[in-house]
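We modelled the chain as a single entity of 91 amino acids. Its sequence is:
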Amino acid sequence: MESNNRLVVIEVSELEAMIERVVERKLREILNHDNKSLGRDGRMSLNEVIAALDISKQCAYNWIKSGRLSQPTRIGRRLYWSPDAIRAMMP
């Protein structure tokens, strides 16, 4: 079986732009769902936020601690964010 693997060389700035476009598209997809899919009162759950931003759970916790990600609303043991807070993170 033949492999179709190719080495592609791109500039770091091009890679960053590609990643930003993918994250922005995924975030728009999540934010465009009706509020029933966004947890309680239209808020986004931790899993939805990490999927939208394409980050790990640990990265989300680090971002909360450093202030890069806004403080969530805690309902019981679960964390929720306003979709507007996540939108504000977009470039």
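As a brief sanity check on the tokenised model: The first strand starts at residue 44 and ends at 45. The helical segments are 12-31, 46-53, 57-66, 83-87.
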